[in-house]
Specification:
Largest sheet: 9 strands, mixed
CATH superfamily of the largest domain: P-loop containing nucleotide triphosphate hydrolases
Strand content: 15-25%
CATH architecture of the largest domain: 3-Layer(aba) Sandwich
Distance between the termini: 44 Å
Number of domains: 3
Radius of gyration: 21 Å
Number of helices: 9
Length: about 350
């Protein structure tokens, strides 16, 4: 049988069945029996389907059509990080330790529901100066909406309108900053309530549009605030933490992946960032965090970990002892393990 060429989402993703170009999403207009029959026919021989790979948009960790999240406590650097990513993707340029994407410059839409317009302009100019940016990301700002219009992306009408605008304009990456300001009427701790947003976000994925959600960290630093179900369908999640370098002028923070489906831990290590109008400094962060992620990925012997980290066995052993003292790592014989795993 001749192989069928078809573009479908990667991994275990199950897309919404509604057409991307449709401006309606009502159950009354869907013919589910026909939809299921068509999908089953297309995928009847999964091994024969030629799947078009999703190109990388940033480093090894971000691909076309991803749903991801950046979260942090207030004032740590969420907007700095998200605007840096927006500018780099718009220019098709690398960012810190992350390589440029495979497709060159891409259209980015930054949806800002929090900062005032003057601050947004100042921050954008600072980032463009730091990165020597060429292209200007598109902005949809709450203060530029007509009088009487306010963001509520949990509203079905706004969802349909924004999705249609994004697809028509050929936008490849949408950044929503931030969930608390852009989505009203959704009980933040209720997993079922999140479905109001999740069904909509799946349709971006089907359109191969990457969506980056910006969110606040919960109290006590136990993860992103609110429903845990939010992260289930995400390809990656980045947590930002405050740096100890309080003497540095500008934004100073550390990025760490708490989830990454697209690559292994050594391709997405913790990074320390310093951002000023003079430029962006980025270097690999704490080796202990990287070691723990490698053990979580199945690398449990000192030699193989040393090779992955580009360190000597002695250096790895020293870092591992520090991790074991804090209770984040344990050792049985010659193998490291995550406690309770």
């Amino acid at each position: 049988m001749r192989p069928t060429t078809i573009e479908i989402p990667d991994d275990d993703e199950v897309p919404d069945a509604s057409p991307i170009t449709s401006t309606t999403n009502t159950a009354a207009r869907k013919d589910w029996p026909s939809a299921f029959a068509s999908a089953m026919a297309a995928g009847c021989n999964l091994t024969a389907i030629q799947i078009t790979p999703r190109p990388r948009l940033m480093g090894q960790w971000m691909k076309q059509g991803d749903l991801g999240m950046i979260y942090a406590a207030r004032g740590v650097g969420k907007t700095w990080m998200s605007m840096l990513i927006a500018q780099a993707i718009s220019d098709g340029a690398p960012l810190g330790e992350w390589d440029a994407g495979e497709l060159g410059p891409q259209k980015v839409l930054y949806v800002d529901g929090e900062m005032n317009l003057a601050d947004s302009k100042e921050r954008t100019n600072a980032i463009r100066s730091a990165l020597v940016g060429g292209q200007v990301p598109g902005f949809l700002h709450h203060e530029t909406l007509p009088e009487g219009y306010c963001f509520n992306l949990a509203d079905a009408e706004q969802q349909e309108s924004l999705l249609a605008q994004v697809v028509e304009a050929g936008v490849q990456v949408v950044i929503l900053d931030n969930l608390s300001c852009l989505c009203r009427g959704v009980k933040e701790n209720d997993n079922d309530e999140w479905e109001k947003m999740n069904s909509w976000l799946r349709r971006f994925r089907r359109a191969r549009v990457t969506v980056i959600l910006i969110h606040h960290e919960g109290r006590g630093g136990g993860g992103a605030r609110g429903a845990s179900k939010r992260e289930d369908e995400m390809q990656w999640v980045i947590r930002l933490t405050s740096s100890h370098d309080a003497t540095h002028e500008g934004a100073v923070f550390t990025s760490e992946f708490t989830k990454c489906r697209n690559c292994k831990a050594h391709d997405a290590p913790p990074l320390d960032w310093k951002v000023t109008a003079e430029g962006v400094e980025c270097e690999r962060g704490d080796d202990m965090l990287l070691l723990i992620e490698l053990v979580r990925d199945g690398f449990n012997q000192c030699g193989e970990i040393a090779e992955m980290m580009g360190r000597s066995k002695g250096q790895v052993s020293k870092v591992a002892r520090r991790a074991m003292k804090t209770g984040r790592l344990e050792k049985s014989g010659q193998k490291y393990a995550i406690p309770g795993s």
